[in-house]
Every structure is written in C-alpha cells, then in structure tokens.
Design brief:
Layout: H1 7-24, E1 34-45, E2 50-59, E3 64-70, H2 74-82, H3 86-90, E4 94-97, H4 101-110, E5 115-118, H5 120-143, H6 152-155, H7 157-161, H8 169-182, H9 187-199, H10 207-220, H11 228-239, H12 241-250, H13 255-270, H14 277-288
Parallel strand pairs: 1-4, 4-5
Antiparallel strand pairs: 1-2, 2-3
Helix pairs in contact: 1-14, 2-4, 5-9, 5-11, 10-11, 10-12, 13-14
C-alpha cells in the first residue's frame, strides 16, 4: 500500500498510540451539563449474523463523544457512570434519552438529581410508527391483503407521515380523498390527527402548560374511541410525561448524539467493519472524542 505496510501493522500502531494518547489526555472529558446516550450497531457476529450493539455516551452541549461501551443495557451504563467522580456526575443537569427503559433505569440509579429529557425526534418517530401500524391493519382488514400500488391507503402512506404544515392544498385534498376511499371507520384519520397533536407538544412555549398538555393528551389517546395502536401510544406518553415535558425546560435533544453515531458509522465504513470492540472503540474516540493531539509526541505506546 501507500505506506509500505500491511493493515495489521498500521492497525497495531494506531491502537498502541491511540490508547496511550487517550489515557494520557486526562482533561479530555471535562464537566458535562447535558449527557446523551444512544445505541449504535457495532457488528453482526457469528454464523447467524447476530447483532452486537454498543452505547455512545455524548456531551450533547458540545457534541463530543465521551466514550463507547459494549452492549445497550442499563448495567453497562451504570458501571461507566459509577467509574466517574461523584463531582462529575453531580454537575450533570440533564440526561437525554430515547424512550428506552434501560437508559431510564440507569439515569434513575446513577444520576438521580439530573432531569431526564425524552428526545423529541424519537417521540414523533413513535407516533408515526403507530400511525403506520393503524394504516397497515386497516388496509388488511378492508381489502384482505398488504398494500398494493393502487390501494388508497398504500398511496397515502407518505402523505400521512408528512408534517401537516408541509402539505399544500393539493396534497391535503389528495390525502383526505384517499382516506375517504380507504378508511371506512375513520381509524387512520384518528391516528393521523393523534400524530399531529403529538407534534404540537413542541409548539408550546410555557413549560407548565406543556406538562399539563402532555398528561391530558396521554389520557385522551387512551379513549375507547381510539384505535388500539393509538391507545398504546397514549399509555407510553403518560408513562413518559415528565421526560417529554422536560424538553421545554432543558431545550436539549439527542441530535448531537445521532450526529456522533453517523461519524462512528463513517469509521466503520472506511474500515469495512470491525470484529473487535477494542479496535472499534479506540478508532471512534480518536475520530469523534476530540483528544488533545499535541500530546501524541509525548506518549509512549505499550
């Protein structure tokens, strides 16, 4: 190759110097005000291509990758947080997460004083997912088969998940016509309105009013007149009402964490994937963890 060495020699050098650099850079992980976590696929391993996951831990205020740990369990995140100084944990004001039970348990256990913030993107994604589940069920109930290109509900699928304010008059008229043709009981229309109401949570400026709205919405969506998928959405919203409404205080999201995950995926593509987690972690931290490269000349690899 260009460097006159095979992949193994270069990788050994990157791992040796990279690990030494990260260990020497004691100031890399500073005080954090808002901590975000998210899962990212590490590899598909074994003959059955079993998915192996990792957890990205990110300072969402600065967009810095703090660490990558194996798995996506609460135990792994708890262990990582427990290894950090008490003063560091106590300084965290907000913990951002998707609607994940393990992350919530870890934050309840290790960051009890931090306010938890449910990521808006994941809540709206869930609302769109429930809407699509209603559409597919009604499609099968009315026509007895999965969506085909000429079926009204299949033709409406992209219009349904599109933001209402992005629908022009022609698009809205087309959507309503397709619902009239393919939604005899109005279940899809109800789910569509529910999705747009969930999106409206983030149009409210007053935090107290937002919390009241979220709680009321969680109850309203569990009404017997709603499709079962939307009642399930209502139960989720009610169970997560405090973290959902906390966004109006914190105004932080997991967007920086998702951006870091995209950088990690770029590292994976360039490397054509990884088999060893240690290699994956060091490469990710060197690329997105913002080490102090000035220290590189002073470190001694193992």
């Amino acid at each position: 190759g260009e460097l006159g060495a095979d992949w193994h020699a270069i990788n050994d050098a990157v791992m040796a110097y990279g690990e030494a650099l990260l260990e020497a850079d004691a100031g890399r992980v500073g005080a954090v005000e808002a901590l975000g976590v998210d899962e990212v696929l590490f590899a598909r391993l074994g003959p059955w291509r079993t998915q192996s996951w990792s957890t990205s831990i990110v300072d969402v205020a600065t967009g810095q990758l703090l660490d990558v740990i194996e798995g996506r369990s609460s135990a792994g995140l708890c262990a990582w947080l427990a290894a950090m100084p008490d003063t560091w944990r106590d300084a965290i004001a907000w913990a951002v997460l998707d609607l994940s039970g393990p992350w919530r348990l870890a934050f309840d256990t290790m960051l009890p004083a931090a306010g938890q913030v449910a990521d808006p993107f994941h809540l709206i994604k869930l609302a769109n997912q429930r809407l699509d589940e209603v559409r597919r069920r009604v499609q099968n109930d009315t026509l007895g088969h999965r969506g085909r290109k000429d079926d009204p509900l299949y033709r409406s699928r992209r219009l349904l998940t599109k933001a209402d304010e992005r629908l022009d008059d022609r698009g809205r008229t087309r959507l309503l016509g397709l619902l009239d043709a393919g939604d005899p009981r109005g279940e899809v229309r109800t789910a569509w309105h529910a999705k747009e109401t969930v999106r409206g949570i983030y149009d409210i400026d007053d935090p107290d009013l937002a919390h009241e709205f979220v709680v009321r919405l969680g109850h309203d969506l569990q009404d017997d007149s709603c499709p079962p998928e939307i009642r399930q959405l209502g139960r989720t919203i009610l169970r997560w009402s405090d973290p959902i409404a906390a966004w109006h205080h914190a105004r932080v999201t997991n967007g920086p964490t998702e951006a870091i995950n995209n950088l990690i995926k770029r590292v994976k593509r360039v490397a054509f994937g990884f088999r060893r987690f240690a290699h994956y972690r060091i490469r990710a931290l060197l690329y997105a963890g913002r080490p102090n490269w000035d220290l590189l000349a002073t470190v001694t690899p193992r």
